[in-house]
Amino acid sequence: MKNSPLTPAELQADALLLLPAWVLLADGPQSDHAVVVSNGKFAAVGPADELVAQYPHLTPLSLPDKLVMPGFIDAHHHLTQSFGKALAFGEPSEIYRRIWVPLENCLDENLVYLSARLAALEALRGGFTTVCDAGTRASGDASTIASATQEVGVRCVLGLICNDLADDIDARARAAIVARAQRHLARWDGHALVHPSLAVSVPEAGSDGMLQAAAAMCADAGAVFQTHANEHLASVERSIVRRKMRPIEHLHHAGALGPQTLIAHATLVTPSELNLLARTGAAVSYNPVASSWKGNAVAPALQMAALGIRFGLGTDGTRSDAFRLVDAAETAQRFAFGLATGDSSCGAGELWLDRALRGGADALRLSARIGEIAQGKAADFLLVDLDVPEMRPSWDLTWELVRLANRSQIDAVFVAGKLRLWQGWPTDWDAHAFLREVDEVAREVVAQAPIQRVHVAPTLQPLTRTTLPTVE
C-alpha cells in the first residue's frame, strides 16, 4: 500500500483503488471505506479490507486526511455570461434586460466558446462536476458551448432556448423552433458528458403552445424543460397583468408543469403555487446567492422540502464556489425564515449537502448517473483535504463541510473517472495562457455591448498584471 505523497500521475491510471480517511455516501460520511474507479464509473464502493482483497491487481492509494465525495451539481447556470461578472454587482433586479441580453447579443461563435470555457473552468475549480446551462441568447449553435465544456471536462446539461413570442414570428418560424429543438434533443441523446435540455427564458417569452410542446418533448426524451419563474416582482406583476395568472400558474395552465420541468428561482411563491409544484412533481433550482445579490426574496426551500418538492442548488452564474453555495443555502433560510420561527437547525448540514448532490441530480433527471458515490454511477467526484485548521477538531463532518470547508481544500476534481483538475488547475492544458486571452477579448466585447448600468464604476478596464497598483 502506497503512503508517500500523492502525485497527479498516480491519479491518471486507467483504474484506481482509493483508500481515503472518509467517503461521503448517501447516508453520510463513512470511514474505513474504499472506492474503485474504472471505465469512468464507480466499479465498487465498500469496506476497505474487502475491496483490497477483491482487487489484488490494483495498488491501493492510501489517502490519509482526505475525503472522497461526489462532485457538486450546479442546477442553474448561464455559461455565456462569464465576461460580465462584477458588471451586475449592485444593480437592481432584472439585470438580464440591461446587462446580460446586450452582452450575449454581442458574442460571436468564438466569444461564446471562450465565455463558456471560462465558466466551465470556474465551475470545476469550485467543486462542480455538473453544470446546468439555461441556454444562451447569443447567436449560433449550442454545440459551441458543448465543445467548450467537453474540452474543460465538466458535465453539462445543455439548454436550448425556444422562445417564440417575437413580434414578427409566424407559424413557419414556430415550426422551425420546434424542429431545431427536436434536433438538439436527438443530437446529444446518450452523450457521455452533454445532456440536452430545452428552455423558454420566462413563461411570458413563450406561447402556450410552445411551452406545452417544449415540455412534452423533454418529457418524452427524459430531459429537463427549463424556465425562470417567480423570480422578481416585476415579472410576476407582468404575468398577472397580461395573463391574469402568476408565472407558475401560467405554466400549469399551458400544460408545461410536470416532473420534467425545472424552475429557476421560484422565490415569490404563494401557497397555491407550492401546492402546484408538489402535485405536478416539478423541480426547482434554489439559488440563494442570486437572491442576496439581486433578488427580491428567498425561495422557501425548507417549506419545499417539507412538502416533498424536488429541488437542487444553483449558482445562477453568480460565483462558482460549491462550498460557499451550500453555506449560503443554509444561511439564507436562517435569515429569511429560521430566525423568525426559532428554527436553530434550518435543515441541518445533511439537507443542504443532499440538495447540492442528490437533489441536483434528481432535479436534472440524472439520478441514474450522478449525485452520489455508488456502484455503477459515473465517477464524478472530489478529493478534499481535511488536514487543515478549519476542519480540526472534527465533531460533525457534514455540518463542517457546509459551514467551514472551502474550495482551497479541493485537491483533485474528477469527471467520468478522469482527473480534470489538480489543486485548482488543469494538468493537460495551459489555463493561465487562456486567462490572458480572456482578458483581451472581454475588454473589447464589454466596450461594444450596449450595457446600461445604474451604478457605474470609475472604469470598466479589468485589472491585469500591468494595471495593478504598485506598493512602495
From TrEMBL:
Residues in Aminodeoxyfutalosine deaminase/Imidazolonepropionase-like composite domain copies: 34-57
Keywords: Hydrolase, Metal-binding, Zinc
Lineage: superkingdom: Bacteria
Matches recorded under Pfam families: Amidohydro_1, HUTI_composite_bact
InterPro entries named among the record's database cross-references: Amidohydro-rel, Metal-dep_hydrolase_composite, Metal_Hydrolase, MQNX/HUTI_composite_N, MTA/SAH_deaminase
SUPFAM superfamilies: Composite domain of metallo-dependent hydrolases, Metallo-dependent hydrolases
Domain Amidohydrolase-related positions: 67-419
Molecular-function GO term, any one: metal ion binding
Family per similarity comment: Belongs to the metallo-dependent hydrolases superfamily. ATZ/TRZ family.
Annotated protein name in UniProt: Hydroxydechloroatrazine ethylaminohydrolase
Species the sequence originates in: Caballeronia ptereochthonis
